[in-house]
Amino acid sequence: MDLAPEELQFLSIPDILRESISIPKRSPKTFYLITLALIFPLSFAILAHSLFTHPILAQLETQPSVDRAKTRHEWAMLLTVQFLYLIFLFAFSLLSTAAVVFTVASLYTSKPVSFSSTISAIPKVFKRLFITFTWVSILMFVYNALLIGFLVIFVIAVDSENAFLSFLAFLIILVLFLGVHVYITALWHLASVVSVLEPLYGLGAMKKSYELLQGRVKMAFILVFGYLAICGLIGGIFGTVVVHGGESYGVFARIVVGGFLVGVLVIVNLVGLLVQSVFYYVCKSYHHQGIDKIALHDHLGGYLGEYVPLKSSIQMENLDA
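The line above is the sequence of Polyadenylate-binding protein 1-B-binding protein; the predicted structure tokens follow.
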């Protein structure tokens, strides 16, 4: 990012996308290795896990319920696959975030960038991201509990033919999904960047993320909703053609479409991680919170065991706040 910090606040959504897409050109080898080692496995797992769960679900739907031993075995298989998938998804999601955010910040501060230095920094960055993710997960649990509660109310209202209650429950569900879910996702993504680039993590990073989002909520909503919509579209096409399209599409066509969609999702995830990094600097600039590149350079060096001053300008900024 060659723009001055005070100019970043004026970037529009197209400008943020253009800026994000141009970043890998500054260190193509590093981003190529990050994409190959972290983002590709993540994207492949997101789409391919349904290939493993679909046959199990199909057997659970078709086999007689009297065969309890086989049913228990199928359920055990399904839960095991889902558990392993969630662990893999969680790990590679945080690893990809740590790698991209650290690399972008290093380029921003003109710090030497390499895949090995990024990998060396990940263990300390991962710990901070894990704590932040844990608190976000608690928030998401509360959100999901509310969503499930209103879904139950909606089903009951439909069964009882209560038009007013059905409409009210549906409206609340729509607001929860389109509004709250997207906002929490934006909060999480920005808190992840804060956890890497500032001496904050967990609740502190979430609080700072909330403060940075003020005045930029609409932009964050559009970016996150667009990302989720594209991922949903890719997942929908993959499910229709690759997972459930055995009768309508040949094996070769399904392989080609599946490979193409995985490639598209890899690009979408990489750009999404770059956008969340750039958006952090945009929010900082909007709130006139200057970023001392020297202090940030030293902060990033701390992950690699380099000398870090007792007080940086980033830390002083947080104390003044």
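Note on the example: The two ends are 26 Å apart (CA to CA). The longest helix spans residues 115-159.
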